[in-house]
Amino acid sequence: MSVQETPLAAVKRLYGSKDKLVDSISATLRNGDEDEGELKQRLLSASNKKLLRLAEVAKTVTDKYGSKDKLADAIATQVGKAKDADFVTKLKSYSAPRLLDMVRSSEKKASSK
């Protein structure tokens, strides 16, 4: 029987502390008009498991798309509404996890056709 690592142990092993983890993901998860101090305060009160999941989302967005805005543009292109400025603006207001979920579902739809 193997022992599963706790979320706290994973945070300490990967990032050293919860503060460092929050600092690393806050830039990617921040919405345009949101104060970074308020966001960090909210993230510090979140569970370690949720923070690890958000860190994975932030890493995927950064590595695969570069930024949240580029991810929104990619979704608009996949849906065929890249020229609709209001639609793109609405997409950019969504959270990074929601955008990543949207692009994954549109990729699945495209591959099933």
Indicate the topology.
Layout: H1 7-15, H2 18-29, H3 36-44, H4 48-65, H5 68-79, H6 85-92, H7 96-112
Description:
The protein starts with 6 loop residues before the first helix and ends with a helix. The model has no long low-confidence stretch (mean pLDDT 87). It is built from seven helices and no strands. Helix 2 packs across helix 3, helix 2 packs across helix 4 and helix 5 packs parallel to helix 7. It has 113 residues and is mainly alpha-helical. The protein has two domains: 65 residues, no CATH class; 47 residues. It is flat.
Task: Summarize this structure briefly.
By secondary structure, the protein is mostly helical. Helix content is 75%, strand content 0%. It folds into two domains: 1-65, no CATH class; 67-113.
Oligomer: single chain
Helix content: over 70%
Total DSSP E strands:
0
Head-to-tail CA distance between termini: 43 Å
Main sheet attributes: strand count, strand direction, barrel closure: none
Task: List SSEs in N-to-C order.
Answer: HHHHHHH
Radius of gyration: 16 Å
Bin the strand percentage: under 5%
Residue-averaged pLDDT, rounded? 87
The tally of helices reads: 7
Which structural class best describes the helix and strand composition? mainly alpha
The global form is: flat
